[in-house]
Write a structure and sequence with these properties.
Chain A is mainly α. Chain A contains 13 helices and 2 strands. By secondary structure, chain B is of the alpha+beta class. In chain B, helix 14 packs across helix 16. The longest helix of chain B is centred in the first third of the chain and has 36 residues. The N and C termini of chain B lie far apart (129 Å). In chain B, 40% of the residues are buried. The chains are: A mainly alpha, B alpha+beta.
């Protein structure tokens, strides 16, 4: 079973020197290829858009390859610096946003624009893992609290941009690292109880009007069918009308007739549901599950605390990506701007995701010879 | 948890971590399963529901307006058609800078401020990809100017659409009526599905009366639309059924002759074919251009028409109510004969006035010195008033009223034009009901000469003459002769509509009256003798003069001394040829003066036009 194969077995060829994990690589490649097919349909058969996405994917896979060559040890050494500079850039963006009046997520570096929040998606799990790996597991309470601060501060800065989707991803990335570190379940339940009053406070003081509206619309999309509820209503219609087998590739009426908003970006899952039906979706979900389980296997095989926690955290961030996006498109969750990983049109989130997969491959292929 | 030693225990950590990994794997599977359950509900259990929603989303049913039927005169001259008119329309989504575009357009063609105002209002309602009209009815030159500059006006289009057009303009405005935009009130009474795509509806005249025939049946097309309502393609089409064409009895040549005869006078002329009730000409002057109303008349033009003292919008032929004056004397003469109260040779002595017993008031004759001995024939030829004072007193208002109603006075003629007035034929009962007063004998006297309460419309008058000409056969006037199916061209003639005939016991009495009326024109003493020169046929006529302004007992009516608007109305009724009537005419000239001098020559011109051929002889087909 490729999910659990041992990397040593294929050492006879040259391939191991590429430091790639072939099952994971294959899964990602399949996902990207399927995503392109869907994008071609969702973009209204625009080959131009597909070509641009191919370019992005190539860059992202290249970055994955680069990250796969970096040893976990090097990663560990650079972690505090990456995290620190990421935090500074976040602050810079925030200050510039204050001056520029309005939402500001980008840092214009002349040649390309750079989103520090994307960088934090990697930097946060790295940093929490680095910090918790200093002491034996499970971590003491003092370490847990400090760890919480490490991921809550950047999350708050990002939420203030405001980018609720990314903030959520960073919160969960940090929290999952904590969980993998052996956070006691009692503490988890306690936090869950605390979440209720925290949500109320957030509702009244921490949210923008449009965010509050999104939540209300999520609870009752029919209240505003042509306004904020339009996205959810149209996407559920698209998915529901797809049925078991779908309407066929390029035949989705909801998407091709432009009823479905953001059909090539955040709502591309609805296009899959409409054109390929439940069977197509099951295939997609199977692919996602395969990638996640393979990554978890990589995590379980990791040799030290830092790499274990990092691998687990990155994997679960990917899961959150998938679940939040699908949950939002199917009306299970409120609309937050989270793309469907490797399928949605757009660059920056893909690049960071592929970089994380590169790290995972690196963890799996750079092994110290230890006796266990 | 603080029990854990500060020393590392790799195996313990590994065990702890692997347990967490298993939990994470189970958690991942659970989340994915949760999503699958949700999808199962959406795609399998509620699939049909969402399929319906999706289909409703994209398929739109659009109505297609039918083409309105055309209207022709009796000789096939087109009177109302649908002309492509060019309008300048703008598609907002294709215009980069609306203000600059509007400025550029205004440099090329004139766009009034009210056009601009309307355009901006429509712009707010329409969707961005829909054409919004800026200027309607572009001239050829304007079309050319825009066309040449098209390259620098993206999003500006010249659109051609069908608009109702009345090529003869004011000539038939009161007969054809006009179409206008459907208003709120009409919308409530309409079959909204049949009018789903229709913007115009008949407002008056033939256009209104025959609205159901002219309109046709709406068509539909099923179209696929996108979320913004833009039509992408047509899925299915049910073509509309065009409206029926109408062929009128009106003869444009006659209508033109009648209008020319009336000239600048205000008044009305109606010509009817007594044999079938066909309305040959229907003139009301002054008139107006019905084309102004088709695409919405602007307020200033409408006010000018509506508030004009000349009342061009008022249809005098249908709604003008005038005292008939002496034109009805032949009918009372006929009633006198029929009732046996007089014989043709019964004579009275006219000394210029008549007095009721016990009343000082003098009922004067129009001829101050009187007509001397007067019999029935002379009473009609010279239009003796005193003869009819006496006759009226003998007959009494009850018999007069009943007889006149049988000829159609005091009630609608039933013409196929909406909104005609019924005129007024007084009776004892009517006076009691409306005025709460008894009937006075003096009122009977003046009713005998067509004055007093009696009021008639020109159409009623013409219809009564037609009835008189055809020995009591009473028909409703018909403006429309036949309906024609647009596609097949199959014509359905509309039958003559019979009303209860006027029954006369002794048929020779008709002829006596006809002879007397012929003498009105052809005898040297007749009041209409001025028109008998070079007549190629015989005419039976009767002049009339209706008082607008009461003069005092001892004053004399001197036309020159009285302001034009208080002068008498001139009337003339006639039918010809006498022995085989083909045309009956009624003319009323408001404040025209004497019927014989003013109105009779107008009627002759109309009859000449209708009855004579190119060489001035009676038309072969009429002999």
């Amino acid at each position: 079973m490729i999910l659990l194969d041992a990397p040593q077995q294929s050492r006879r060829s040259l391939l191991p020197h590429l430091h790639l994990d072939w099952p994971l690589f294959t899964g990602l490649l399949l996902l990207a290829a399927g995503g392109l097919a869907v994008l071609y349909s969702a973009s209204g058969e625009s080959s131009e858009m597909v070509l641009r996405q191919v370019t992005r994917l190539s860059i992202a896979f290249l970055l994955m390859f680069v990250f796969a060559q970096i040893t976990p040890e090097t990663l560990r050494r650079w972690t505090p610096l990456v995290f620190g500079s990421g935090l500074l850039l976040l602050l810079a963006v925030l200050v510039m946003g204050e001056i520029g009046k309005g939402a500001q997520r980008w840092l214009d570096l002349g040649v390309f624009r750079f989103q520090p929040s994307e960088m934090m998606k990697m930097a946060v799990p790295l940093m929490v893992a680095w910090y918790l790996a200093e002491t034996p597991l499970p971590p003491p309470l003092r370490r847990i609290l400090t760890g919480v601060v490490i991921f809550v501060v950047p999350a708050l800065l990002i939420a203030k941009q405001p980018d609720l989707g990314t903030a959520l991803l960073i919160l969960s990335a940090g929290a999952f690292v904590l969980l993998f570190a052996g956070l006691p379940w009692r503490l988890v339940s306690f936090t869950a109880l605390l979440a209720v009053p925290a949500a109320l406070i957030l509702w009244h003081y921490g949210m923008h009007d449009y965010q509050r509206r999104r939540v209300l619309t999520f609870l009752n999309p029919e209240s505003d069918p042509l306004g904020a509820g339009y996205h959810i209503i149209q996407s559920t219609i698209a998915i529901g009308s797809g049925g078991l087998y779908g309407k066929g590739w390029l035949n989705g009426t909801q998407s091709h007739l432009e009823f479905l908003p953001e059909r090539h970006t955040d709502f591309i899952f609805a296009v899959i549901g409409e054109e390929f039906g439940l069977l197509g979706i099951l295939l997609l979900l199977a692919l996602y599950l395969f990638i996640i389980l393979r990554c978890l296997y990589i995590a379980s095989r990791a040799q030290d605390t830092f790499t274990r926690l990092l691998a687990g955290g990155l994997t679960m961030t990917f899961l959150v990506y998938v679940f939040v996006n699908i949950g939002m498109v199917t009306g299970l969750l409120p609309v937050v701007g989270v793309p469907l990983p490797l399928v949605s049109y757009g660059g920056s989130s893909m690049v960071t995701l592929m970089a994380s997969f590169g790290m995972l491959m690196s963890i799996h292929t750079h092994r110290k010879l230890l006796k266990t | 948890m603080f029990r854990g030693a500060p020393l590392r225990n790799p195996q313990w950590e590994n065990y702890l971590f692997k347990r967490r990994v298993i939990v994470a794997a189970l958690f991942s599977i659970a989340l994915i399963a949760f999503v699958i359950i949700r999808l199962f509900f959406l795609q399998v259990i509620n699939h049909e529901h969402y399929t319906t929603l999706s289909r409703n989303n994209r398929v739109d049913i659009q109505p297609i307006a039918p083409t309105r039927g055309l209207i022709y005169d009796r000789n096939g001259v087109i009177l109302a058609e649908n002309q492509p008119t060019f309008s300048l329309e703008i598609v907002p989504e294709r215009v980069d800078d609306m203000e600059a575009t509007l400025t550029a357009i205004r440099e090329l063609i004139t766009v009034s401020d009210s056009d601009m105002e309307r355009f901006r209002q429509i712009l707010l309602r329409k969707r961005r990809f829909e054409e919004t009209p800026l200027r309607l009815r572009l001239s050829d030159e304007e079309v050319a100017r825009i066309a040449v500059n098209r390259y620098r006006l993206p999003g500006v289009e010249i659109k051609s659409r069908l608009a109702r057009d009345y090529p003869l303009g004011a000539l038939l405005a009161h007969t054809l009526g006009y179409v206008g935009r459907i208003d709120e009130r009409e919308l409530q009474q309409l079959d909204t599905s049949n009018y789903a795509a229709t913007a115009h509806i008949g407002k008056t005249g033939v256009e209104k009366t025959y609205e159901n025939e002219l309109h046709g049946k709406v068509g539909y097309q099923q179209v696929e639309t996108n979320a913004r309502g833009r039509v992408l393609r047509v899925l299915e089409r049910t073509p509309p059924v065009p409206g029926r064409n109408l062929h009128l009895n009106i003869d444009v040549r006659l209508q033109q002759a009648a209008q020319a005869a009336l000239g600048n006078e205000h008044g009305a002329l109606v010509a009817i074919d007594p044999s079938d009730g066909a309305v040959l000409a229907l003139v009301s002057l002054p008139s107006f251009d019905p084309n102004l109303f088709v695409n919405g008349i602007d307020t200033a033009s409408y006010d000018a028409l509506a508030n004009s003292k000349e009342q061009p919008l008022f249809n005098r032929a249908l709604n003008g109510q005038y005292p008939p004056g002496s034109t009805i004397k032949p009918l009372y003469g006929l009633l006198g004969l029929e009732s046996g109260e007089i014989r043709p040779d019964t004579q009275i002595w006219d000394e210029g006035f008549y007095m009721l017993k016990g009343d000082e008031r003098r009922y004067r004759d129009w001829k101050k010195e009187g007509h001397g001995w007067v019999d029935l024939n002379k009473s009609i030829v010279e239009s003796c008033d005193v003869y009819y004072y006496e006759l009226a007193l003998t007959l009494g208002i009850d018999r007069m009223s009943d007889f006149m109603r049988a000829f159609g006075f005091g009630r609608p003629t039933g013409v196929d034009l909406t909104g005609e007035s019924s005129g007024l034929m007084p009776s004892r009962e009517w006076k009691r009901r409306v005025h709460r007063q008894p009937w006075f004998p003096g009122e009977t006297l003046i009713t005998g000469i067509g004055q007093g309460f009696t009021l008639t419309t020109p159409l009623q008058l013409a219809s009564s003459v037609a009835t008189l000409a055809s020995f009591g056969r009473h028909l409703s006037p018909n403006v429309v002769a036949a309906l024609e199916e647009s596609g097949s061209g199959v014509r359905t003639p509309l039958p003559a509509r019979e009303l209860p005939p006027v029954r006369i016991v002794d048929n020779s009495n008709w002829q006596r009256i006809h002879r007397a009326m012929t003498a009105v024109v052809h005898s040297p003493t007749g009041t209409a003798r001025s028109i008998n020169r070079n007549l190629a046929y015989t005419v039976a006529g009767k002049t009339g003069t209706a008082q607008v302004f009461g003069i005092k007992q001892d004053e004399e009516y001197v036309a020159e001394d009285i302001a034009k608007h208080l002068r008498d109305h001139a009337l003339f009724v006639a039918f010809a040829p006498t022995d085989r009537p083909r045309i009956a005419v009624a003319v009323i000239v408001e404040n025209g003066g004497g019927g014989g001098a003013i109105a009779a020559p107008m009627a002759r011109k109309v009859m000449d036009t209708y009855l004579l051929d190119g060489e001035g002889r009676l038309r072969e087909d009429l002999k």
